[in-house]
Amino acid sequence: MDNNLETIKSLNELLQGEYMAIESFNNFISRLEDEKMRKSFQDIQKQHRENVEILANYIQNIGGQPDENLGMKGKMGDIMLNMELGPDSIDNEIIKKAIEGETKGVNMAEKVLRGKLDEKSRDIAGEILENDRRSIEKLKNSNKH
Q: Can you list the domains of the chain with their CATH numbers?
């Protein structure tokens, strides 16, 4: 059972990161001028929502409770993001911040993967890691149009 608690804690960390990403993308999307870019950001945000659903369901299935609030760390991150972007951010600055955030998410997922996880938990964390990596590529490519 001890192992399960550690797994649930790790997966909840990942879940928090996904919630932070959704919040950040709400912020980014509201600031973007370019319609095509906004659509791209919405697609990435949708992926994060799917990640949340996968994680939350799995945590419940192994007997845990998904930690579904943003927490202090997330709220502080949101405040910092608002301060860094300011009212007149250009799309390139927003893309840069989004890539930074996604990269932090990938680092967090990699950290969770290095922890003690059962095979199914490892698969789920790995899937989320891949989704986040694809999001970074999508963001980098949206910067080139």
A: 2-142 (1.20.1260.10)
Please identify which residue in the block is written with the tokens 């929502």.
49
Give the integer Cα–Cα distance in Å for 33 and 91.
7
Helix, strand, coil distribution of the chain in percent, nearest 5: 85, 0, 15
DSSP-assigned letters across all residues of the chain: -HHHHHHHHHHHHHHHHHHHHHHHHHHHHHH---HHHHHHHHHHHHHHHHHHHHHHHHHHHTT-----S-HHHHHHHHHHHHHHH-TT--HHHHHHHHHHHHHHHHHHHHHHHHS---HHHHHHHHHHHHHHHHHHHHHHHHTT-
pLDDT in tens, 28-64: 898 888 899 999 999 999 999 999 999 999 999 999 9
The tokens of 102 are what? 């996604």
pTM to 2 decimal places: 0.84
CA distance readout (Å), 82 to 19, 77, 89, 102, 125? 17, 9, 10, 17, 29
